[in-house]
TrEMBL record:
Belongs to the glycosyl hydrolase 28 family. This is endo-polygalacturonase. The keyword RNA-binding does not apply. It comes from Oryza glaberrima (African rice). The gene is LOC127763399. It catalyses: (1,4-alpha-D-galacturonosyl)n+m + H2O = (1,4-alpha-D-galacturonosyl)n + (1,4-alpha-D-galacturonosyl)m.
Amino acid sequence: MEAVGGRRRRPRTMLFLVLVALMVIMAMAKTASGGGGGDDGGAGGDHDHDHEQFLKLWNGRGGEDAKEDYLNWDDDDDDDEDEDEEEEEAEQVVAWAAKCRPPAGRNVVNVDSFGAAGDGCSDDTEAFLNAWKKACSLNNAVFLVPGGRRYKVGAARFIGPCKNRMIIQIQGTIVAPDEPSEWDPASPRLWLLFSGLAGARIQGGGLIDGSGSKWWANSCKIDRSKPCKGAPTALTIDSCRGVSVRNLRLQNAQQMHLTVSRSRDVRLAGVRVDSPEDSPNTDGIHVADSTAVTIQSCRIATGDDCISISNGSFAVRMRDIDCGPGHGISIGSLGQGGAFAAVDGVSLDGARVARAQNGVRIKTWQGGAGYVRNVRFAGVRVDGVDHPIVIDQFYCDATRPCRNRTSNVRVSGVVFRNITGTARRAEAIRLACSDAVPCVGIVLSDIDLRREDGGGEVQTVCNCAMGFDDGRVSPAADCLRTSPCGGMSPDDYHPDDKDDDDEVRHSEL
């Protein structure tokens, strides 16, 4: 086992040695040139400072005193071991479910035993809630939704705390009522809610189908004569800790498919989302007011953001994401209606985005306040994406034009690294930042974007975005280094400066 662990760590060790060698070479070059980093250091000192900050951002650290490195995957080995254990037990659960033999030490609660018909027509909501009440009271319980059946379930709240080591095993199909008129008016924004759980696992390879087509038809984005109003989220993980969701499929949600809110240490892996490209507001995975969320090996095709990360989100890590069609992988929107927003420590390492409006994006409304900082988008392949790289501080998803405001959510310390592929529009990189609250510390490194089907040149468009480029960057991003904005020049930015308002405030859901 030690040998295996050593092999796993060797790539990170080599990477660390390479970074150390780079730093030594840079220090030698600085010494040889006589640059001491003082006030008279000149352009050479600025260049060294840029590269020093780039290394910090590349490694996910905003400053020397960073206590936690949210952007690194240093615990991958532990995560892999946990995944292996969970996968092994999941396979055992599936095996005994097929043989009607529960595993030793597990208390199986089958929804069929509580009167669920599983015919897709009868209302099985009460049977599910009664089965949940029983399962929640037992240690080592398995709440079982058997395979090969279709359960029609209305708005349902599965509330904890429950006894230890709960497994929610969804092998069959759970389908929502398809008529909005049948929906419980007491639960207008929720369909399946899991709340107050610790250490539970939701798994099984089954399907959650929101029957959303009639909800979409009533959306103001489809029929502008109708008022804009919310619709249920298919699956919500709320006020939970240490919960994992693995190998589930969600499709045709009324609005969002899977939301993680007010939770900590949540892991989503092997989740698949499928909805039509024109389905409105159907975000695949949405994170809000949560810390330490991992999203890994997920395939999302939908009509809105594949993944959206909203206010109060910290230490969100994404890896191996397949997105498209959709609106891309987004932070935001933030600051609507003058709200304060805080997002810190977000990383994406490895993604493919195809046939989407955006690749990776940060979007904020004018008039908001707060910050987005310590963000890294890396290892992204884009195929036929309108705008592969976007920061938009003038976001306006409203029926009327938005008024100009002087305040905004501050965006700082954002790295776009190793992003390659094709764009459908000329503006492959759009960095549209506020004149009053410019984006600072923006880094473009190893970018290679070209026009799809050779249809002309692509370009980088900047407004009040300050930072630098590193390595090969195509299209060129000279605008990051050149223009002053709002009385600030690129040389005025110091990434180690503390934000004016570090207080974290959470908005209502």
